[in-house]
Specification:
single chain; alpha+beta; Pnp Oxidase, Chain A; 4 helices; 7 strands; globular
Length: 136
């Protein structure tokens, strides 16, 4: 989508000083970079910023849609080929899907950072995946 592409371009070109929030809000975002699991092309996605002790939650909500976002499959296919930008420079991360108590803890953090996640989960039958990104 053009608005996503434009936000990522502005975020990156400004060294993480512009386009740092969800449009129309003061809620901060991060940008993740993955490799397309089918195309092999570089994919950049802005996500809500959910950080705790240097790790990040990546919530595959897709607004409560019935299917996972495409970037979910990129993370599954190559969890060690991901970078994250939260400020001036991107850095490599390893991602893993959270479950059980760990997911519940991170889900609460995610909802605190972005309350609509709760309604997204309520409107879909699928369990929304949550990944934890740990800097390498």
């Amino acid at each position: 989508m053009d608005y996503v592409r434009n936000q990522v371009a502005e975020y990156e070109s400004s060294g993480g000083t512009k386009a740092t929030t969800l449009p129309g809000t003061d809620m901060p975002i991060i940008v993740i970079t993955t490799r397309g699991n089918k195309s092999g092309k570089i994919r950049k996605t802005p996500l809500m910023r959910v950080e705790h002790d240097g790790e990040y939650a990546l919530v595959a909500s897709q607004g409560g849609a019935p299917t996972h976002p495409v970037w979910y499959y990129n993370l599954i296919a190559a969890p060690d080929a991901v970078s994250l930008q939260d400020g001036p420079e991107p850095f490599g991360v390893t991602v893993r899907e959270a479950s059980g108590d760990e997911k519940a803890t991170w889900w609460a953090r995610a909802v605190a950072a972005y309350p609509p996640y709760e309604e997204y989960q309520a409107k879909t039958d699928r369990q929304i995946p949550l990944f934890i990104a740990t800097p390498r």
